[in-house]
Specification:
extended; 101 residues
Length: 101
């Protein structure tokens, strides 16, 4: 069955392939991705009641990545809200294994 052309799908696919190629090329050239350490000892900034440019609700994998990328620009203030339980880092494999996904 022939599917009609979808320019948005083609654009998304092209961007995904280009992004993946750029990441692969960076790895081959010796570039290392930035790694953020999220431990209990990591100091957190208290919210001072000032302006917020971006509010992200949900600190799952997508929310955390989005917050990290948006906060790379120093003049942008990003607030990430998470109401879920905080699990120790070593406990995630067990939690994921018990998931119903």
């Amino acid at each position: 069955m022939h599917q009609p052309e979808n320019p948005a799908r083609r654009t998304l696919l092209a961007q995904t392939v280009a992004g993946s190629a750029a990441l692969a090329l960076g790895s081959l050239l010796g570039g290392a991705p930035g790694v953020a350490s999220a431990t209990a000892e990591t100091p957190r900034k208290a919210f001072d009641g000032g302006r917020i440019d971006v509010l992200i609700v949900g600190g799952g994998s997508a929310g955390a990545v989005l917050a990290r990328r948006l906060s790379e620009r120093g003049d942008r203030r990003v607030l990430l809200l998470e109401a879920g339980q905080a699990y120790p880092a070593w406990d995630y494999p067990r939690i994921s294994a018990l998931s119903l996904i």
